[in-house]
Each structure stands twice: as C-alpha cells, then as structure tokens.
C-alpha cells in the first residue's frame, strides 16, 4: 500500500506512506463514488513528527503494487488529540456528479451518448463506456443529479436488453461497465482468508406480481411469480409501457424474490469492490456459491490489510424510474 499527496495546482506527488497510521478505502454498488480516509500522525509538541498540512482540494492517491486504487480529492479533515492523528476524508471525482444537479432534454440518442455528453459538460474524462445501441427517443430531466441521469439512461437499456450496468471511476476516468463481473483467479474461503461471516433472509422488499398498463391506464398484461404468491400472498407493482422497451421483459425485471444477504470479514484483496462477483465457500454459514459485492470497506492498519464485504445473493442493478 502506498499513499501519494498532490497539492492543488501542483503536478508533483509526494510519498507520505511513512506518516500514515490507518487507511480506509470503501464503496457501494449504489453510490458509484468511492471514498478514502487517511489518518496521518500528528503531534505539534513532537518535532520529530512532520506537520504535512494537507488542505481541502489537495489529492490523495492510494495505490497497491503499482496499481492506482483511487485518486481522491480531500473534502474534510479532523484532528484527534487523544489519538495524535489528523484524518483526511476524500472522494473520487464521481462525487462531482453525485453533488451536481442539471436539467436536460435528450432526444434521439443512446445511453452511452448521454454519458459522454454529461462527462463533457462536467469536465470528467471517460474511459470505456459500455455500448448498448439502445435508442432513446426522448428523456426529460428536470433538476436531477448526474448519477441518477446516467442510471435513468442505462435503466432504459436494462429494460430493453436485461443487462445490468453500473458507472465506476478508475483513476480520474469514468467507465460504465456490466455489473456483476466475476473477480478472476480469486475466491474467499474459511480455510484460506475468511475470518468471520454472517447470513440473513428477508421478504421486506418482495414483489411477486406486476401489472402492465398503457398510457391510458388500460391493463395490457401481467407477470406473476406464482410460487411466491402462494407462499406469501400478493405484493404488487405496476409498469407503464414505454416506446422501444419490451413490456413483458421490463415487468419481469421488476419482480423481487426473497432477499438473502451475507457479510464476511477477510484478509484484504483489492479486486473485491462493489459491483463485482466473488466465489465464496464458508462451512460455518453454509455459503457456497457466487455472490455479488454490494458494499466494501478495505482497511490498512498496523501492518495488516483486511476487508469487510456486504454480499447479495442476486445481481441487482440500481434501476432509476422516470417521473
């Protein structure tokens, strides 16, 4: 693990790893912007400890084995006298898009073209943007944040193709990828790297029936999960037909089964981030399958690297409905 500090408007980077006591790097599949917290040793009475004086707007860059994990801008700092540290908190540049609202009228375009337009307007560089070629005749946006706009555009593609998508920052570039890709050449096991685990079940968010309507509120179809209805009763949603979208496919994508969640604490691996899938074998909880990472927290402290993962049994996209 290595931490570089880049002052605002300064291209030079300073290696401050030796001053660091704790690093926390985290993210969520429904948040897109990843965060970084860095605790730096601080003691104004000890002349042997250098006061770095990292300021708001400076950059903190976390890397591991030469790979940049996050290039963050500092948003806040907190001095703790008891612990003798200053903790700097920052986010990658996707946070600009989460904190910014806009109004647009998109016509005769595609989700990928919408993302390119948004990133150009907000001065965010782009990497590979997943090509869908799904036509969007019109998408009206009034005062919505940029992340929601991206997800509304790609929700159109999801309803049309059934493929799940998510935006993510790598370095200082925004990518749109297929959500749920499996981490290569790695698995979690209680005999190798899992230190603790838990498992839970819930039907709080279940949807087992979706009625399909046209724009005149006339019912045109219905999709039902019969086994679930017999077991739990009806939990219903409605879907209004959209141009260019298969209504049955869209309605089926709205069905929600029993929610099963799990979490693990394990030795750290930097590929285990939200939005990706990982194979798990845990004899204590009986978990043995592919899981999708919904939230992740990676911590370097005292010479050890650990991670905490919240897992989902199903790969679910953050579908944004249009008002």
From TrEMBL:
Domain spans labelled YqbQ/XkdQ: 23-311
Pfam families (alphabetical): YQBQ
Source taxon at top rank: Bacteria
Annotated Gene3D superfamilies: Baseplate protein-like domain - beta roll fold (2.30.300.10), Baseplate protein-like domains (3.55.50.10), Baseplate protein-like domains - 2 layer sandwich fold (3.30.1920.10)
Protein's name in the database: YqbQ/XkdQ domain-containing protein
Species annotation: Anaeromicropila herbilytica
């Amino acid at each position: 693990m290595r931490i570089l500090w880049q002052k605002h408007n300064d291209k030079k980077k300073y290696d401050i790893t030796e001053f660091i006591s704790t690093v926390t790097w985290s993210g969520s599949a429904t948040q897109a912007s990843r965060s970084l917290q860095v605790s730096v040793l601080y003691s104004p009475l000890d002349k042997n400890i250098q006061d770095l004086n990292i300021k708001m707007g400076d950059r903190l860059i976390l890397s591991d084995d030469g790979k940049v994990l996050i290039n963050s801008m500092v948003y806040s700092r907190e001095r703790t006298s008891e612990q003798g540290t200053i903790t700097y908190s920052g986010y990658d540049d996707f946070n600009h898009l989460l904190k910014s609202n806009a109004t647009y009228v998109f016509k005769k375009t595609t989700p990928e073209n919408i993302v390119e337009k948004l990133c150009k307007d907000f001065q965010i560089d782009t990497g590979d943007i997943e090509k869908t070629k799904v036509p969007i005749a019109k998408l009206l946006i009034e005062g919505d944040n940029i992340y929601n706009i991206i997800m509304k555009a790609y929700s159109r593609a999801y309803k049309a193709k059934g493929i799940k998508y998510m935006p993510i920052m790598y370095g200082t570039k925004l990518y749109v990828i297929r959500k749920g890709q499996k981490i290569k050449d790695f698995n979690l096991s209680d005999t190798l790297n899992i230190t603790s685990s838990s498992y839970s079940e819930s039907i709080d968010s279940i949807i087992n029936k979706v009625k399909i309507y046209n724009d005149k509120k006339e019912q045109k179809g219905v999709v039902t999960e019969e086994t679930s209805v017999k077991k739990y009763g009806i939990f219903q949603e409605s879907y209004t037909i959209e141009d260019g979208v298969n209504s049955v496919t869209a309605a089926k994508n709205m069905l929600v089964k029993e929610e099963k969640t799990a979490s693990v604490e394990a030795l750290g691996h930097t590929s285990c981030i939200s939005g990706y899938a990982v194979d798990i074998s845990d004899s204590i909880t009986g978990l043995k399958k592919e899981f999708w990472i919904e939230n992740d927290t990676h911590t370097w402290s005292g010479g050890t690297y650990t991670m905490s993962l919240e897992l989902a049994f199903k790969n679910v996209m953050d579908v944004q409905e249009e008002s």
